Amino acid sequence: MQAILLMIHVALAIALVALILLQQGKGAEAGASFGGGASQTVFGSRGSSSFLATLTGVLAAAFFVTSLGLAYLASSQADSAPDVGIPDAEVIEQQKTVPTLDDSSNQQDNAAPALEEEGQ
């Protein structure tokens, strides 16, 4: 579920960037009034500004909804697995004070197989 929502979220983000780059800036309207041929456009005499603005709003709303959905899924997964992540400082300090095997016992364990091999 989360992977599908994440793929939709990325697709919406890419579509939003492309759609925003397609739109004309505010200064382009002044040049179009001097015979820019606005009546010959695919979207009619008003141009594509209202269509692109509406589509941008719809995609932005969908992007917002997928963002909220991903945040909800992430928080629900964090509640179900509290041991995931960086441990508290107290836990780290307790792990440092756990007694470890001293070097002499490790040397004895390592020396025993060597003695057995020499006898054979």
Describe this structure in words.
- This protein is mainly alpha-helical and 120 residues long.
- It has a domain at 1-24 and 43-98.
- The protein is built from five helices and no strands.
- It has helices spanning 2-22, 28-32, 49-80, 89-96, 103-119.
- The longest helix is centred in the middle third of the chain and has 32 residues, at 49-80.
- The two termini are 61 Å apart.
- 0% of the residues are buried.
- The mean pLDDT is 75.
- It is found in: Cell membrane.
- It comes from Modicisalibacter zincidurans.
- The chain-level mean pLDDT equals 75
Structural class: mainly alpha
**Rg calculated over all Cα atoms:** 32 Å
| Oligomerization status of the protein chains | single chain
End-to-end separation in angstroms reads 61 Å
Helical region count? 5
Q: Biggest sheet: strands, sense, closure?
A: none
The number of strands is 0
- The share of residues in helices is 55-70%
Amount of beta strand: under 5%
